[in-house]
Amino acid sequence: QVSAALKEGRVAPTELCQRCLSLIKSTKFLNAYITVAEETALKQAEESEKRYRRGQPLGVLDGIPIAVKDNFNTAGIETTCASNMLKGYISPYNATVVQKLLDQGAVLLGKTNLDEFAMGSGSTDGVFGPVRNPWSYSRQYKEKYVPKSHSEDKDSNWVITGGSSGGSAAAVSSFTCFAALGSDTGGSTRNPAAHCGVVGLKPTYGLISRHGLIPLVNSMDVPGILTRCVDDAAIVLGLLAGHDPKDSTTIQDNFKPFELSNLTDVSKLSIGIPKEYHAPGLSSEILALWSKAADLFKNAGAKVIEVSLPHTRYSIVCYHVLCTAEVASNMARFDGLEYGHRSDMNKSTESMYAATRREGFNDVVRGRILSGNYFMLNQNYENYFIKAQKVRRLIANDFVKVFGSGVDILLTPTTLSDAVPYAEFIKEDNRTRSAQDDILTQAANMAGLPAINVPTALSERGLPVGLQFIGRSFQEKQLLTVAKWFEKQVKFPTIQLEEVKRHDHGVFQHQKSASF
Amino acid sequence: AARGCGGVWRRAWQRGAGGPAFRGQRALACNVRGGAVPAGKSGLAPWVPVVGLEIHAQISSNSKLFSGSQVQFAAPPNSLVSFFDASLPGTLPVLNRRCVEAAVMTGLALNCTINKKSLFDRKHYFYADLPAGYQITQQRVPIAVNGSLSYSLCIDNKMSQMVTKTVRIKQIQLEQDSGKSLHDDTRSQTLVDLNRAGVGLMEVVMEPDMCCGEEAAAAVRELQLILQTLGSSQAVMAEGQLRVDANVSVHHPGEPYGVRTEVKNINSIRFLAKAVDYEIQRQIEELESGRTILNETRAFDSKLGCTVPMRDKEGKQDYRFMPEPNLPPLILYDAKSLPANMNHQQVVNIDWIHERLPDLPSVKRAKLVERYGILPEHSFTLLNEDGLTEFFEDVIKQTQMKPKKVIGWILKDLLSYLKQHSLTVKESPVSSFLLADLLNRLEEKEISSTAAKQVFAELWKGEGKTPLEIVKEKKLQLIQDQKDLEQICQAVIDGQENE
Question: Which positions fall inside the Amidase domain (chain A) (predicted)?
Fold first, then answer.
C-alpha cells in the first residue's frame, strides 16, 4: 500500500524517511532504537527517489523504511547487542538478511533495542535500558487504566514490550518503520509481537540465512519478521528466504516467493488445539480469546480438534540446558582480543580475559555461561546435554505425529497474559521470567517449525493480545494464508497514539485501512 | 631407512657403571612387537617401552578449512585473516571441499575405513591464538578410522637387513589449526598472528604399536612420503606443516601399561627419535629409582637433548566437547550410494578418489626393485631423498651401465657427497648428464674405477669441466696398449729386484 503510494508518486521516499525519522524523535521515550542512522537512511532514500523517478524501483521494498534488531551485523553502523561488550563495535560486514533488504532498496533507519545478547523476554535487560511498549501511551490503554493510588507517578505505569526483540516490535507498532527484523530463539519475535499488537513471524529453521546474526543458540535461532499485517510479512519473507552459501544450515532447495491468496473457504482446513498449551498461569482472558478463535474456525467450516503434544511441559528445562550450553560456547569468543570491549587489566592474558568478560557481560549472560559450562563438563555431558537432545527429539516428534495425523495448523495462545507493567515485571529475575513467558513459544524453536503471532484483540486493560499459529516445516505459504484469513476476521484495531496522529498526513492512513 | 635401535641403547649402556646390561641387546626387543628385552646382568626386570604418535599435518590447499582466506607460509602477520578466522560475531563456518578430499585420500592411502557420515565438534579452551575460544574438530565421529601404515627399518648398521613393521592408525580427523602467539617477555606482552588460524589440519593418530625412537621416526618418515606423494600435505616439518607429539610409557612385560607422558615441540624427524629415546630412558631411570611418572606434557629441548616439563597451563583441561551446530553431518558417497541424479561435482565420491590415487611409496619402491633389479633397501634410500629417484632414473636413461652398478654410484658416491656438504639433490653440482657421461667412460673401460672416483671428486668442484676434460688433464686414461703395459710392468719388476 505504501509501496503503491511510492510507485504512484503520491509520496516520495525522502519524505517518508523524514517522517519516520521525526516520529522516531518524538517517540524517543519508547527507547526502541539504540542507533538511528539518520544520514545513511536519508542517502538511501535519495537513491530510492532517483530510481522511482526513472521508473525503475528495485522492487516492492524500494524506499520503504525498516529497522533491524541490534544483534544483526550492519556494516558501518554500530552493532551492540545491547551489551557493554560490543558498545562501539562497528562491524565490517552486513548480515545476509540486511544485505538482501538493502539490495531491494529498503531504507535502514536504525538498530533496535533488545535484551542483552537476546537473552530475555522483556527487552528490559540491555545496557541501554528497557523498551517501553507504545501501547502504554495509547488512548486505548490510558482509557482503561486505573491508577493504584493518587500519588502514583503518571509515567510509572508503562508496560513492557516483551522480548527479546522488543525494540523492533515497538518500532513497527509505533509506525516509525514499516517492517523490522527481529530474532527468534525461544519466542523472541512472537512474544513482543503479541504484546505490541503486530504480526511476528518465526520462519522454519534453515529457510532464512543466519549469517551475520550474532548467535544465541545456533541450532534454534532464526531471523524474525515483524510487520503490521500478514501480507507485509509474506513480502519480506519472499525477499529473505533461500539458500545462503555462507550459512551451511540453510536448505539447498530453491525457494519460490509466493503471493498470499485470499482464502475464502476454510472447510478443508484442520486446526489442532494442543491441550498442553492451556498452561499454568494462562489468563482467563486469553483462554477465552483462544476458545473464541477456535469457534471462529469451526463456524466457518473448518475441522477443529483437540490434539496432544505430551512433552510440552519438558520444553523449558530442555531449552534451558541446550540454550545455556550453546551460549557458553558462543560467548567464548568475547575475550577483548580482536574486537569489542577490552579491560585495562593487563597483568596476564587470563586476568585480562576474566576482567573483560566480567565488565562486558551482564548478570544474565554470565549466569547462562556458567550454567552452560557446567552442563558441558565431561562428567555432566551425558546426563544433561545428551539427555536434553533426546528430549528435544521427543518434543519435535510430538509435532511430527500431530501433523502426520491430518492436522494442518495448530492454534495456540502466544503469551500467558497481556503486557505487564515494567515495575511488576522486574520483581522477578530474568531467568524466572523467561521460564514463564517462553512456555508457549519455545517448542516451535525446538522443532524448527514456522510460527506466527497474529494480533487478535485488546484485553480488558486495553492492551494487545495475540494468538499463535504453528505450521508444518517449510509450509509458510499455508501458515500465512491461514493467518491472513484470521487477521481479516478479527479486525484488530489500530493503535491510537498522539505522536503518530501528529505525523500522519495520510500516509499512515493508508496503512490503517490496510490492516482492517 | 633408519638404522636400528642398537646404536642408542649401546651408548646408554656404556654411560653408567652398573647400568642394566640388557640395554645393549635392545635391537632384539624392537623386532618382536611388544616383546620384552631379556633380563640383564643386574637381574632387574625388563622394560617394554610403548610409543604412540599424534601427528598434525597441514592440508595443502588454497584456502582454509572453514573460510576463504588464503593458506600461505611466512606472510606478513595478520594479512591472511577472514572475518570468520578472527571470530567476528555472526560469522559461520563453510566447509572446504578440497580439505575433505585430502583427508579421504590420506585415509585411503592408510588403509582406513572412510566414514560416510562424520561429524564436527567444538573443543573449548581459552588461549590467545584461538580467537573463538574453541577449535572445530572431529571428536565423536572422525572422517577415517582403523587403518594401518607399514614402514621399514634396518636392524643393524650395515643396511643389509630390513624388516617391515606395521603401526595401526586409530583415526584421521579434520580440524582447525590455531594462530601463533609470540611471547615477548622483555615487553611483557604477547603478539598474536592469526594467519595460521583456521588452516585445515589432518590429525593422524597412531596406536602405541611402536617401541623406540627409530620406529617412531621411520613411521613418521613413511607417513611424510605418503602425504607428499598424495599431495594432501607438503609435510615439511621445518615449516610447521607436520607436527608430531609422542606419547611414551614403559611397563614390565605382563603388567598393565605405565603412566604415559606426552612429548611436544619436536621439530624434526631426527629429534623425534632422540626425544622418544630420551623419554623412554628417563622413565626407566625414574621408575628404577623408586619414583613415579607424572601424566604430564613435556617439551623436547633440542639443544640439551632432553625432555623438560612444559609450563602447566591449567591443570587437567575439560574441553567441554559439544557438537558444532553450524555444520551439518559430512556425508560422503561411493559409487553404490551416489544418487543417480546428483551432479558428481557437488559431492565427494570416495571411489572416484580411490581410482585416482597415485602410486604410494611402497608401490613405487616395489616397481623400482622390479624394474632395475636393485635391493629393497636401495629403493628406500632412493625415495627418502627428495629428487634422488628422478636423478637415478635420468642417469639410467643416459648410460649403458647396468642399474645395479649405477645404484652404487648414486647411493655411495653422490649421496655421501651431498650429505657431507648438506646439499639437496637439486643443488648437486654434478648433474645426471655429467654422471652418466662419467659412468659411460667407465663402462667403455677408458678409465679405471679408482680413476672414476677421482674424476667424480673433480666434477664435484663444479668448475664446468666435462669428465673427458678432467681425464685428459689428470692423465687418468687407462692404458690400452699391451706393449706399453708390458714395459711398465717390466720396469716395476726390475725396480723391485734392485731392492
Answer: 20-480
